[in-house]
Amino acid sequence: SAGSLSADHLQCAGVDPATPVAGTDGGLEFSRAILGDAPTLNFEAARQDILDAGDSLLQNYSNIGAVVLECTNMAPYARALSAHLHLPVYDIVSFLTWFQAGLLPRAFAR
């Protein structure tokens, strides 16, 4: 919800409060199901809500270089959003994968 993520939240997290934010508030499925704690979710409709939010972000801010998905429930849509926007997309799964890689770095043959 773009309305729920304020400049104060960003500033407290050490992020520039002018960072562009978009949400799925105007969508048909994602916010309804996730924020409404619904027992079911139409995956394809929710996916479209994420893609539409990405389109809105790029329409309103032309200098976007990457997208961070703040909601843990958005991770399943990261690949589709990246392919749709032709931008890097980061989420909790990519963060944890990066973090885990530092705990046990990859071994390379000599």
Mean pLDDT reading = 95
The secondary structure category is mainly alpha
The counted number of beta strands is 2
Mind telling me the C-alpha Rg?
16 Å
Shape: globular
Low-confidence stretches: none
Summed up, the helix count is: 5
State the end-to-end distance. 49 Å
Strand order of the largest sheet: 1-2
- What about the largest sheet? 2 strands, parallel
Quick rundown:
The chain is mainly alpha-helical and 110 residues long. Helices cover 45% and strands 4% of the residues.
SSE diagram, text form:
Elements: H1 7-12, H2 30-35, H3 43-60, E1 67-68, H4 78-85, E2 89-90, H5 92-103
Parallel strand pairs: 1-2
Task: Explain this structure.
The chain has 110 residues and is mostly helical. It has five helices and two strands. The chain has helices at 7-12, 30-35, 43-60, 78-85, 92-103, and strands at residues 67-68, 89-90. It has a two-stranded parallel sheet. Strand 1 (67-68), helix 4 and strand 2 form a beta-alpha-beta unit. Helix 3 packs across helix 4 (78-85). The chain starts with 6 loop residues before the first helix and ends in a 7-residue tail after the last helix. 16% of the residues are buried. The model has no long low-confidence stretch (mean pLDDT 95).
Name the features.
single chain, 110 residues, mainly alpha, two-stranded parallel sheet
